[in-house]
Amino acid sequence: MTDEVRPAPALRAGPQASSTALLRVRGLQVWLPAPRGAWLQALHGVDLDLDRGESLALVGESGSGKTMTALALMGLLPQGARMSGQIELDGQPLQTLDDTAWCALRGRRMAMVFQEPLTALNPLQPILAQVMEPIQVHRLAPDRTATRARAMELLEQVGLESRMAAAYPHQLSGGQRQRALIATALAAAPDLLIADEPTTALDARLRVQMLALLQSLVADRGMGLLLISHDLALTARRVQRLAVLYGGRLMEQGPAAELLERPRHPYTQALWAARPRLGAGRDQPLHPLPGSVPALGQTGAGCPFAPRCPLAQPRCGEQPPAWDGGLACWEVGP
Amino acid sequence: MSPVDPAASAPGPGVPVLEAEALGQRYNGRDVLRQVSFSLRPGESLGVIGESGAGKSTLARLLMALERPASGVVRWAGEDVQALSATQRRLRRTQVQMVFQDPYSSLDPRWRVGRSVMEPLQLLRMSPQARQERLSAVLAAVQLEPDAALRFPHQFSGGQRQRLAIARALVTRPALIVADEPLSALDVSVQAQILSLLRDLQRREGISLVLISHDLPAVEVLCDQALVLRDGQVVEQGSAATVLGDPRHPYTQSLLAALA
Question: How far is A285 from chain B (nearest CA, A)?
Fold first, then answer.
């Protein structure tokens, strides 16, 4: 490691830092502008906590609000979007930061790995230069030689051979590109890494390798990892905690092993049951969940899952259940 | 050549609905597919497993006769598709239909979906009334309301659009459907709906399926045979139960390990 050249982070919260969660999100709400002055609410109050050395997967289907959550955390919401709620990194509120402060923070304290490595990487620059850039921008190494050495070290850490350093993105395979992208995200040694998992860009085997790599980095560096994923089957066994989003609301969250073995929310249960099991044979019963995921702005006043929920009662459609920190459900109460 | 009754070109008993014999393809002097052989009897289904770049979609295009192979033969109901005249091949197409990953690719956004679903019927001599009846029947088969026909593609959810694409593939009563990753663009909660629908269609209508997928549990649910492709080569082939339950090749084992 080259920690000696890393200046003291500007936002480190002092001696009590260890008792403060790395990331604390409370009541995050996001509205997106719609035609004719209307607003569509994308997030209806999301709470998240993440510690150092911990991995949390935010799981949800299309339109559940997982990418919107990640963008809000990174200060990258689309133009015109409105946001309320609290986001704290090491106890420091982020929602009040101006653009300059955000730029100092992004890439430095928190970094994001985007879904599609080919669009996130610069096609005209060799990989090495792209890994060196954040180190230079945030002045994390004394000179070019040290910057280069650090970038080479990062490439090695993500499992890219040194001869790949001079390669351009198009010369790499999908998995190698994803590794290169992770190296650029790690270049400034962020405390929080947000990885938006590719939906179709990578195959299962490569994604498993990527998750293993991210997990080892979490363990080695004491980084916090927030993984945005649409695929429970692959993710659930490879992170410590899961948070399940649906229609812009948290349905359930908790230790991944617990949610896998004893899902409480009817939506989590339905998601688990909907996956066919390998080895259960050709005639295994299938449990399709009727209906489809609500479009943005199409959720009613109550629980967004109510129209598809086998347990739904009239009140479920009228008023959203309260979030008790682990569950939001009228019927499966604490 | 006059339009034919689809039953006339349906394979007789015992004739494979689809055969590939030493099938190979080259792009720019590079082999992208080599020596693929299999045979599907009526009602039998094959899962083609592999990661991106393995040659799965190339194989699909060859099986659909959308490309001419560099080597080998594709037979629909015993007939070499390259030996058919263009007209004959168009007519035989009513027997071999395709479902794509993105249902938008088979639905014209400017057309009411009923028109898109009925379009393949133009290959057959049918009265307007018979066409309408067939449309209602396939919409019912994919569990959509009859009035769905009057709406436009954007008025449907992703899962409903995939049902419509399947309805379009079914409308000519094909003996075989080639489905290229039909689940992977869908939400997890909706995938099981389509999976269940495809299994019902196999059972009810005896349709053969070539399922191109990296979703191994889906292959287990839908297929009798499985074929594992890597870099254009078949690394393992056999009954789906054996390939997925007791894989011999380390590559197949590694694909299965990723899901464990």
Answer: 9
Q: Does A265 fall in a domain? A: yes
Q: Look at residue A302 and tell me if it is in a domain.
A: no
pLDDT in tens, A189-229: 899 999 887 655 456 777 787 788 888 889 888 999 999 98
pLDDT for residue A202? 57
- Say yes or no: A202 and A214 in one domain: yes
Nearest one of B188, B246, B199, B87 to A268, comparing CA atoms: B188
Task: For B101-116, give the secondary structure using H, E and C.
Answer: CCHHHHCCCCCCHHHH
Structural domain including A163 reads 123-189
Do A58 and A133 belong to one domain? no
Å between B72 CA and nearest CA of chain A: 29
Instruction: Clarify whether residues A259 and A200 are in a common domain.
Output: yes
- Per-residue pLDDT tens digits for A313-332: 999 999 999 999 999 999 99
Residue at a domain's end among A189, A209, A237: A189
Q: Which residue has the tokens 């949800």?
A: A60
Domain contains A334 = no
Alpha-carbon span B216 to B237, nearest angstrom: 14
Interface test with A, best of B44, B142, B187, B239 (most A CBs within 10 A): B187
Domain membership flag for residue A234: yes
- Calculate how close chain B gets to A240, using CA atoms only, in Å: 17
Domain final residue, candidates A155, A189, A223 = A189
Q: Based on the structure, what is the number of domains in chain A? A: 2
- Over residues A127-144, the mean pLDDT reads 92
Question: Which amino acid appears at position A299 of this protein?
Answer: T
- For A194-204, b/e burial (b = at least 16 CB within 10 A) is bbbbbeebbbb
Domain shared by A195 and A184, yes or no: no
Q: Is the pLDDT of residue A179 over 90?
A: no
Rounded Cα gap, residues A71 and B113, in angstroms: 36
Q: Give A3's pLDDT tier (boundaries 50, 70, 90).
A: very low
A28-37 pLDDT, tens digit per residue, is 999 999 888 8
Same domain, residue pair A105 and A227: yes
Instruction: Let me know how many helices (H) and strands (E) chain A has, helices first.
Output: 11, 10
Chain B interface residues facing chain A, Cβ-Cβ under 8 Å?
A: 51-52, 157-160, 184-185, 187-193, 195-196, 199, 214, 216-218, 220-223, 240-241, 244-245, 254-256, 258-259
Determine, for residues A203 and B51 on separate chains, whether the beta-carbon distance falls below 8 Å: yes
**pTM attached to this predicted model:** 0.84
